[in-house]
Amino acid sequence: MIKRILAKKKLWLGMTLLLSGWLVAGFLFLDNRTTEKSGASSELSITTQAVPESEIGLTAAPAEPEVETREVVGTIKRGETLGSLLGDYLSRQDICCLAEECEHTFPVRGLRAGRPYCLLFEDGSFRCFTYEIDADEQLLINYESEQFKVSKEKISYQVERAVVAGTIRSSLFLTVSELKELPELALRLANIFGWDIDFMCDLRQGDSFRVLIEKRYREGQFAGYGKLLAAEFVNRDE
User: Fold this and answer.
1) pTM of the full predicted structure?
2) Of 154, 172, 195, which closes a domain?
């Protein structure tokens, strides 16, 4: 009798354990299915597609209007003044105010005949006046927001060193001219050696000279000489 009871208890315990195992396995299976579904949903990709501007009604920004510029380049004529140059574009009162503004920088009554100038206009209105005071400086007058801005600036040059050499055949000036150099170079040589050589009486055919000088260029064009760095003159009588 006792053996039967023990056998029944063992059978009941085995069935209980087996049933518990099935429940745990079923729970784990359902949990894996849920995880797989969740993982699959997280791996979904999102794609985008560009939409043409014509389909969404975008309009390009209007182009900025072009500014029409005009330059007037010339040289100051005898008797010409700032008033006569700008009288067609500025009022008499503005010209008087401008002359006062220039007084401490460069008095405009000092405009000299033969000196270069440039007028700049934008859409027909005066914007800038440039006047070359000398070979080294220029006067700038800008007109912005109904105000004048006056300044004096150095003229920018590209400087190159060059050796110029020649042999006298008749005169120093003719020899310099034959070398396609300016008469200024002959004058500078005469000033340097004038204390030692009388270029009117002592100059002989076959005399020679050689100089190292700076040549200045502006916008690709020769614009005169700079410093004379070294000079040599060989006179046959010396």
Assistant:
1) 0.60
2) 154
